[in-house]
């Protein structure tokens, strides 16, 4: 299978079944010509446009400082664009429509796993008792059934990240934003969490926007890869990964995966000014 460069590089005339299915998804959110400037002249993001559809798994891939986290924060509503706008289908979104996972699990050390997962519901005024079933369901989805009463200090790094993901999904959001959630984990744990994230996503049927520095991770997880360059932060390529879901571990050793990684690496090299630096 030839990697499908959505920006015109190698797109074939007849769309693949995966591309046709992707195009048929309902619109969810659009980033329209968004620029974000910090202070007088730090252009963190310039003219970003992105149409996100329900069920997309989009990776934002690029070198340090290209505006990936800034884009995620704008989409999350944690910051406002300097110009341009973000539009949600249906006229808007509620806080419950969105879950956010950061690189650090950011758990409350004094609270149990279940109480940590309760946090977004608690902020909406819901009692722990009324949320218990949802909390248990979220913990089961991330593979932590039976750890409700444990404290963060008793968990491994991977388990803490699972709690963080359970907390983001407990409200059953339409979209989950993830900012390099697995960057601090060892490779074996990271691979396992990549597999499990796809299974969780399939169960929740939600849209994911995932920030990463890793070509390999972006190809394994996503069906769209948005490649960004720095100074100013901007989108330079969009690549489609047409491998259907569910993706088994064997995809990692396939010729298709290698071809997609090569295409993404080339795009990333271009983003880095052809520096040819090694990628994770
Ligand atoms: N609050 C801020 N004030 C000033 N400059 C900022 C702020 N946030 C980000 N920047 C600058 O905007 C640019 C983009 O930053 P951003 O964190 O979005 O990049 P990134 O691609 O996520 O980087 P990394 O991969 O290292 O996390 C950088 O030059 C950064 O220094």
CATH superfamily label of the largest domain: P-loop containing nucleotide triphosphate hydrolases
Q: Please tell me how large the radius of gyration is.
A: 19 Å
What does the average pLDDT come to?
89
Cofactors and ligands: adenosine-5'-triphosphate
* Strand arrangement across the biggest beta sheet: 1-10-9-4-8-7-6
Give the fraction of residues assigned to helices: 25-40%
User: What is the CATH architecture annotation of the largest domain?
Assistant: 3-Layer(aba) Sandwich
Instruction: Just give the CATH class of the largest domain.
Output: Alpha Beta
Query: Structural class, judged by helices and strands?
Result: alpha/beta
Strand/helix succession: EHEEEHEEHHHEHEHEEH
Beta fraction? 15-25%
Please tally the helical runs, counting DSSP H or I stretches of 4 or more residues.
Answer: 8
Main sheet properties: 7 strands, mixed
Uncertain segments: 1-11
Pfam families: ABC_tran
InterPro entries: AAA+_ATPase, ABC_transporter-like_ATP-bd, ABC_transporter-like_CS, ABC_transporter_ATP-bind, P-loop_NTPase, SRCR
Family: Belongs to the ABC transporter superfamily.
Domain ABC transporter: 29-257
């Amino acid at each position: 299978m030839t990697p499908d460069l959505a920006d015109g590089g190698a797109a074939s005339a007849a769309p693949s079944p995966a591309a046709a299915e992707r195009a048929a998804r309902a619109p969810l959110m659009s980033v329209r010509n968004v620029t974000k400037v910090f202070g007088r002249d730090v252009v963190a993001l310039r003219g970003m446009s992105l149409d996100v559809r329900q069920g997309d798994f989009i990776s934002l891939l690029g070198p340090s400082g290209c505006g990936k986290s800034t884009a995620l924060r704008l989409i999350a509503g944690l910051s406002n664009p300097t110009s341009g706008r973000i539009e949600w289908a249906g006229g808007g979104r509620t806080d419950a429509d969105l879950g956010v996972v950061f690189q650090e699990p950011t758990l409350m050390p004094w609270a149990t796993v279940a109480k940590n997962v309760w946090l977004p519901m608690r902020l909406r005024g819901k009692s722990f008792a009324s949320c218990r079933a949802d909390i248990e369901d979220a913990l089961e989805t991330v593979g932590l059934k039976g750890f409700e009463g444990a404290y963060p200090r008793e968990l491994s790094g991977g388990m803490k990240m699972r709690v963080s993901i359970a907390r983001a999904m407990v409200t059953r959001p339409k979209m989950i934003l993830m900012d390099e959630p697995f960057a601090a984990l060892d490779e074996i744990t990271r691979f396992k969490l990549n597999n499990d994230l796809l299974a969780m996503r399939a169960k929740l049927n939600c849209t994911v926007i995932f920030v990463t520095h890793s070509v390999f991770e972006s190809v394994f997880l996503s069906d769209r890869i948005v490649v960004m360059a720095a100074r100013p932060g901007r989108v330079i390529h969009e690549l489609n990964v047409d491998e259907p879901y569910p993706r088994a571990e064997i995809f990692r050793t396939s010729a298709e995966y290698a071809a997609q990684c090569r295409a993404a690496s080339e795009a990333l090299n271009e983003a880095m000014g052809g520096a040819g630096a090694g990628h994770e």
